[in-house]
Design goal:
The complex is a heterodimer of chains A (432) and B (786). Chain A is α/β, with parallel strands linked by helices and 432 residues long. Helix content of chain A is 43%, strand content 12%. By secondary structure, chain B is α/β, with parallel strands linked by helices. In chain B, the strands form nine sheets. In chain B, strands 1, 2, 3, 4, 5 and 6 form a six-stranded mixed β-sheet that branches. A six-stranded mixed β-sheet of chain B has the order 16-15-25-24-23-17, with helices on both faces. Chain B has a six-stranded mixed β-sheet with strand order 29-31-30-35-28-32. The chains are: A alpha/beta (432), B alpha/beta (786).
């Protein structure tokens, strides 16, 4: 299987991020085409294309748009979730840095389709250069008559606001994002009502991932058949896979859904020299780990799910045999503890507890019973927490114990971590 | 706990839904949450964040159950506090689902890892939902071997509420109550994860009038009251169902006593009146009854020394009886008595003293008000339910949050639930009115378009201070079909009206002027006839006493500085033979000839009638007291005067009152007074508007410094134009003065009519009647203090 650069097609052009650079490559032509269509026709087209949410859950994008009640007399909102914070996930930020206008074009088309005149991009505030680039792109689009009143002379009005988040992983959860956008503390909301009925300011709201919206212009231009020619039966199209960690050429690889890690490793030069693959995440740290035995799992929604994990954000973090699984899992768990919003008991208290046990285990303290305790605690968090953050916090723990129980026990037998932490670093061997 | 205040209506109207819980079929009104439906068949699902009067949140995850709808099971257990019952739903709680059972045990275990094991020193221990549910749903041994999260121990979030963050399980009941019910979001969650905590903004402490409710609904010992903290263990307390003696809302309460000492009061559960809430005054203002100046023995004035000296009961009774029989006597019972007591006072006046000179009103009033009370208030059946169903509510001379906080909560609930339209006739939009999204009107003449025939006018007792206002209210109600309800400030006033403790009314609305009515009551009392002449009102009585036409006064609760003209009252007290029935030393006892110490509400039983006329019966809290109630003193006096009242106790007084029956004869005609134009101030003058704040220098709040600490700071309010006219800016000291005295307070520029000045009536630094000796509507001078 080969790469299919669509979103990343022209990332090598220095000025792609400018409105001129984007237009030179055919930018905003899909918008012209879409504004000439009936909004309902756009929704049908996206439905037919089989585009599924690229933020992790894989919900069909067109179906989501069709949930917005039309003719209800209420304002509708489009909110783009650009609060990319999942450990390992690094697709939206490079995309926005390289090509912010593709998102803006997607926003215009999506907003038009759902009959919205106000859209927001909620972008991770720590990535200041991306915030600035987006703000400039929006200003340029306004100046070019692509946003604001009577867009492109077609009588359609749209305002787009860039909102910088203040640094909370939980605000990537769509309802917490809405609360944050409204100016409240970001904590997930009770559902129902679902955002499609009562989202931002209690009005019908579509919340989509950056990549989902950015894929829309290409689908409008390329058509359903072209889009469906890529990918697998139920997971159609192209997507960005982010490879990071112990891999020779880390980065974003845009490929059809269903590609395997074996193929991606071939494209990226493989695991770093002299080392072998130990474990990897298919979709960021919230998705259960895979090992070398999963190299041929097709990386689409169904393939990954049937192998016991989730496609998630397609953040492939690669770890070679120098990595201590306990240490890696502890680091992730510390992240979840730090980012738990505190609203619900299992996630708030559970992550606090998990970290303490893992710290002991990494230091070689404890007994094998602690592993069973860990698994039992994870069972008490998974599916008991208010939102998916709690579930995600258990994934690395349960999957790592499943595949690497003996390594945990080795810590306990040795009374300390049997790994040299330096060996897993980039600077390993530099002073040797 | 309360389901909701309008459960009856819901049950009557709602479509029923049938589902199965643990194999038992249950039919509940549509929209009923699983957790509530389970309660109806006796299945208790553990819970913390859930509260029936707060919006569902699903945060604590303690109430997880397995749910199946249309044969499809949810893949994971669901929070039963957020999910309504659906037809055919199959619910399996911890009793029949091992998954739900384990989920609940797991959540309980998580809640306990960071909870300190300080139950032995925690106020909540013994009545703690966490403790109780840890017993039912927790495990005997902890598996947690790590380090607990710690915080510095309790911090004050107001002078009366302390927060122990270690104990907090972050259910957010307190913050949700403050936001959803009270409208005072002074507390909120901050930080995240295990460090999440309830917080205040450092410059804005938790100064809500309803803050005590957060302590009561806290399911752990995280929020404690400064006044009760470390005073008792719940299992040492003896609880009595009581009614609040402060305002006319008539909240149901629970009073807790340890070793004959009242230690705390809690809001009672009465959906029709106060749901499960009360205000901080009702909760904490009870130490006045144990103040050091509490009277303990009868006192009589030594004629030689002029001093009050302790006397025996028989001696005091004899002296009082002699004094009352010597000359024309009148009765001023005050507005804080129980129905039984005030009924006894008026019977005493009519049977023993042979006079209609009785008036319960110990506050500014008018003859117009007398007619209004007789025509529109006595026998009125307008109730809280009318607030719940009104199209719109107009507040006239009534600041609901300050003067009757539970009515405020009731109105606010409707404002939040169905955007009930509220209007207020006031000089400016108070914080309370703005929490009701009220429209502000400066004059009653502006508002006729406000009304429909389902409007409700709530008019406060201050309306009597504006001549013609009550007549205008009646006129508007007559033309629009709106209902009128009158809301006094004191707990005993409605009872006093029904009992006939006013010159123009006999019990239950019988006009004194009506011969049939007099015969009616005389027959019931077994006497030949009743006095027929119209009784004097409070002011007339005091004037007559000051000039010697009335020689003796029998006085219950009265403070001369509550009256419109304190000087006349003081002169009357100085010149008449005064028999005072009092709790504590007062301006009256200081001048009385005979003083009888009487029982406080905790030392007697009885009934208040709240503003609705609803009976608020309460039991005697301190069973072993030797205190004597007003009623017993009056019966002793009556016997000494050879005119027995035949009322042994509150039970017989109530029975006699109840036996009198409704009056179906003619009613007193409504007043029809013209509106009198307000005085026109010139520059440097202003029309004074004033009312009492909930927390102020009222004598029934004495001795409770923690409560007083959350009182609003007094200030002067002026419009910007008025301020610039006298050359002052926001925050400057402004002096407000009359011939009698002056008050200087910082200015708060407020959007209000020009040349109008507002001051609190009886707050620290602003005691209008003592300093200025005027009432609302008076012309006062204003000027810069600099």
């Amino acid at each position: 299987m080969k790469l299919t650069p669509v979103l990343s097609a022209n990332w090598d052009q220095k000025d792609l991020f400018t409105i001129d650079g984007y237009r030179r490559n055919g930018g905003y032509s899909a918008m012209k085409k879409a504004l000439a269509m009936e909004p309902a026709a756009i929704i049908s087209l996206i439905k037919e294309s089989g585009l599924r949410g690229r933020g992790g859950a894989g919900f069909p994008t067109g179906l989501k748009w069709s949930f917005i009640p039309q003719g209800d007399g209420k304002p509708h909102y489009l909110v783009v979730n650009a609060d990319e914070s999942e450990p390992g996930t690094c697709k939206d930020m490079p995309l926005l840095l390289a090509n912010p206008h593709v998102l803006i074009e997607g926003v215009i088309i999506a907003s038009y389709a759902i009959n919205s005149n106000q859209a927001f991009i909620y972008v991770r505030g720590e990535v200041v250069h991306v915030v600035r680039r987006l703000q400039q792109a929006v200003a340029d689009a306004y100046a070019a008559g692509l946003l604001g009143k009577n867009i492109d002379g077609k009588g359609y009005d749209l305002d787009l606001v860039i909102h910088a988040g203040a640094g909370a992983y939980i605000c990537g959860e769509e309802t917490a994002l809405l609360d944050s956008l409204e100016g409240f503390r970001g904590q997930p909301r009770l559902r129902p009502p679902f955002p499609a009925i009562a989202g931002l300011y209690a009005c019908p709201t579509v919340i989509n991932n950056v990549e989902s919206i950015a894929s829309v212009p290409a689908i409008i231009n390329g058509g359903v058949a072209w889009f469906a020619s890529m990918g697998t039966e139920k997971s159609k199209g192209f997507t960005l896979y982010s490879l990071s960690g112990h891999v020779k050429q880390p980065g974003q690889y845009e490929a059809p859904l269903g590609i395997t890690l074996r193929e991606l490793l071939e494209l990226s030069g493989g695991v770093r020299e002299g080392h072998t693959l130990k474990f990897w995440t298919p979709g960021g740290s919230s998705t259960p780990l895979f090992t070398a035995e999963h190299l041929d799992v097709p990386l689409d929604y169904e393939g990954v799910a049937s192998a016991g994990s989730m496609l998630g954000t397609k953040a492939l973090q690669i770890f070679d045999e120098t990595t201590c699984i306990v240490r890696a899992v502890l680091r992730w768990s510390e992240f979840y503890q730090h980012e738990s919003c505190g609203k619900c008991t299992p996630c708030r208290e559970g992550t606090y507890w998990l970290v303490q046990i893992l710290k002991d285990l990494e230091a070689g303290k404890g007994t094998e019973e602690d592993l069973d305790k860990l698994l039992d605690l994870c069972d008490n968090i998974l599916g008991r927490a208010f939102c998916a953050l709690g579930d995600g916090a258990t994934s690395p723990i349960t999957s790592s114990i499943k595949y690497f129980r003996s390594e945990y026990i080795a810590h306990l037998t040795a009374g300390q971590c049997p790994f040299d932490p330096v060996a897993s670093t980039l600077f390993a061997g530099v002073n040797a | 706990m309360t389901i909701t205040n309008n459960t009856e209506n819901v049950v009557a109207q709602a479509e029923m839904v049938t589902a199965t819980i643990d194999g038992f079929e249950v039919s509940v009104p549509k929209g009923t949450l699983i957790i509530r439906a389970a309660e109806t068949i006796g299945i208790q699902i553990p819970r913390f964040c859930d509260h029936p009067l707060l919006a569902p949140v699903g945060a604590c995850r303690q109430c997880l159950v397995d749910v199946e709808v249309n044969g499809r099971a949810f893949p994971k257990p669901q929070a039963s506090c957020t999910m309504p019952i659906e037809p055919g739903m199959v619910v399996k709680t911890q009793l029949s689902s091992p998954v739900a059972e384990k989920a609940q045990r797991g959540v309980m275990e998580f809640l306990l890892i960071n909870h300190p094991l300080d139950c032995p020193v925690c106020d909540k221990g013994g009545e703690c939902p966490l403790q109780n549910q840890a017993m039912s749903t927790g495990q005997g041994q902890t598996r947690f071997e790590g380090t607990k999260r710690t915080f510095p121990k309790p911090i004050n979030i107001s002078s009366q509420v302390l927060l122990d963050r270690e104990r907090c399980i972050l259910c957010a009941r307190c913050t949700r109550f403050s936001e959803q019910i009270a409208g005072d979001p002074f507390i909120s969650m901050s930080e995240r994860g295990a460090l999440q905590q309830v917080a205040i903004y450092e410059k804005d402490p938790f100064e809500s009038y309803f803050s005590g409710n957060t302590i009561q609904i806290c399911p752990v010992g995280a929020l404690t009251g400064a006044s009760y903290r470390f005073r008792a263990r719940p299992f040492d307390l003896v609880s009595t169902a009581t009614a609040c003696e402060h305002c006319a809302a008539g909240c149901s309460m629970r009073t807790d006593v340890r070793r004959s000492k009242v230690l705390r009061r809690l809001a009672g559960d009465d959906p029709a009146v106060n749901e499960e809430w009360n205000c901080d005054k009702g909760r904490w203002a009870f130490t006045y009854a144990t103040a050091p100046d509490r009277l303990t023995t009868p006192l009589i004035r030594n004629e030689m020394s002029g001093e009050l000296v302790p006397a025996s009961w028989p001696e005091a009774i004899a002296v009082a009886a002699a004094g009352l029989s010597k000359s024309r006597a009148a009765v001023l019972p005050g507005g804080r008595l129980t129905l039984e007591e005030v009924y006894t006072y008026q019977k005493f006046a009519r049977v023993v003293l042979g006079t209609n000179d009785i008036d319960f009103r110990a506050r500014p009033f008018s003859a117009e008000e007398s007619a209004f009370l007789a025509s529109h208030v006595v026998g009125s059946t307008i109730s809280n339910a009318d607030i719940d169903s009104a199209d719109s509510v107009l507040l006239i001379s009534f600041e609901a949050e300050e003067e009757s906080p539970i009515i405020f909560l009731r109105i606010r609930k409707q404002v939040m639930k169905r955007a009930l339209k509220v209007g207020t006739v006031a000089p400016f939009l108070t914080p309370g009115a703005s929490k009701l999204n009220a429209m502000l009107y400066h004059s009653i003449t502006e508002i006729e378009s406000f009304f429909t025939n389902k409007s409700l006018i709530l008019v406060g007792e201050r309306a009597a201070q504006t001549p013609g206002l009550l007549s205008k209210v009646i006129e508007i109600a007559n033309s629009s079909g709106a209902k009128i309800a009158w809301i006094p400030r004191r707990a005993g006033e409605r009872g006093a009206i029904e009992a006939g403790a006013i010159g123009n009314l006999l019990p239950l609305g019988r006009p004194v002027s009506n011969a049939t009515a007099r015969v009616d009551i005389a027959a019931a009392w077994g006497i030949a006839s009743l006095p027929s002449g119209p009784g004097l009102d409070t002011l007339e009585i005091l004037k007559s006493a000051a000039t010697g036409q009335i020689g003796a006064l029998l006085i219950g609760g009265l403070d001369p500085f509550d009256l419109a003209e304190p000087a006349i009252a003081l002169a009357a007290l100085d010149s008449a033979f005064v028999v005072s029935l009092e709790l504590r030393e007062s301006e009256v006892t200081k001048r009385a000839n005979v003083v009888f110490p009487v029982a406080s509400v905790t030392e007697k039983s009885g009934t208040f009638l709240n503003w609705e006329g609803r009976e608020r019966g309460f039991e005697q809290v301190l069973k072993d007291t030797t205190r004597v109630s007003d009623l017993r003193v009056l019966t002793m006096l009556a016997e000494a005067l050879a005119a027995p009242l035949n009322l042994r106790d509150s039970v017989s007084a109530k029975a006699e009152f109840d036996s009198l029956g409704e009056w179906d004869g003619e009613r007193t005609p409504a007043p029809s007074e013209p509106i009198v134009a307000a005085p026109t101030p010139s520059a440097g003058e202003a029309v004074l508007i004033t009312w009492r704040m909930l927390l102020d220098l009222g004598s029934m709040q004495d001795g409770e410094a923690n409560l007083a600490g959350t009182a609003r700071k007094a200030n002067v309010k002026l419009a910007a134009e008025t301020a610039s006219e006298i050359g002052v800016r926001d925050g400057d000291l402004v002096r407000v003065s009359t011939e009698a005295g002056s008050i200087a307070l910082p200015l708060e520029i407020t959007e209000m009519p020009v040349r109008v000045v507002w001051l609190p009536e009886n707050s620290f630094g602003s005691q209008i009647r003592r300093s200025l000796r005027v009432t609302s509507g008076a012309l006062v001078r204003i000027g810069s203090e600099a």
